Amino acid sequence: MPATAYPRTDRSTATRARDRMSYDRAAIHAVIDEAYHCHLAFVVDGEPRLLPTLHIRVGETLYLHGSTGSYLMLAARGDGLPVSVAITHLDALILARSQVHHSANYRSVVAHGTARLVADPATKRRVLDALLERIATGRSQDSRPPTDAELAATAVLGLPLAEASLRARTGGVVDDEADLDLPHWAGVVPVSTTLGRPEPAPGVVLPPPLLSGPA
Question: Which region is the signal sequence (predicted)?
Answer without folding.
Answer: none
